Amino acid sequence: MIARKIMMLGEIGVGKSSIVQRLVFDRFDFNYKPTIGVDVYRYDLPPRPGREAMSLIVWDTDGNFGEAIFRHVYMREASAAFIVGDLSRRNTLDSMAKLGAGFREALPGRHITFLLNKVDLVEAALRMEVPEPLVPFAAPVVTTSAKTGENVQQSFIDSADAIIRRDQ
């Protein structure tokens, strides 16, 4: 089984930990407990045509790092990043673009997926709109809900496939 490191990046309170909890344990906890430093989780994907079994080592980072995260040892050998924003807090979407640019600069050629989380809290019209700051990246932009599980597992599966295609 191959293993690949995935970084969870984003501001405090956007739902990084909730997304990982939904993925790994299929649960959502209403009690918010901020991550301090980094929490590391493992999520195993079964083999399928074009991809052998894969273990995703998910590094859930503290939102306090901001752009300084790219100078930290945590980033070493990351194959991909999920950059998370909160659709109910539009200001977090601008910071997603900054984190995306920082990740691309620190680890060129690595896969990025932008997760617009908390889709369950916004009007349907906002769900399909790609925020303007993310358009130049030409990277997947996926609406998710850690609360309902919407698009959480599939976004990780899609990213695992992209990592294999890029041979990272």
What this model shows, in words?
The chain is an alpha/beta fold and 168 residues long. The protein has one domain: Rossmann fold. It is 27% helix and 26% strand. The chain has helices spanning 16-25, 91-106, 124-127, 152-166, and strands at residues 2-10, 38-45, 54-61, 78-86, 111-117, 141-143. A 6-stranded mixed sheet has the order 2-3-1-4-5-6, with helices on both faces. Strand 2 and strand 3 (54-61) form a beta hairpin. The chain is globular and about 40 Å long. The model has no long low-confidence stretch (mean pLDDT 88).
Number of domains: 1
CATH-derived topology? Rossmann fold
**Overall pLDDT:** 88
Strand order of the biggest β-sheet:
2-3-1-4-5-6
Largest sheet entry: 6 strands, mixed
Task: State the end-to-end distance.
Answer: 14 Å
Based on the coordinates given, report the CATH architecture.
3-Layer(aba) Sandwich
Which structural class fits the helix and strand makeup? alpha/beta
With helices defined by DSSP (H or I, 4 residues minimum), what is the helix count? 4
**Rg (C-alpha, Å):** 15 Å
Helix content: 25-40%
Please state the overall shape, judged from the principal axes of the Cα atoms.
globular
CATH class: Alpha Beta
Number of strands: 6
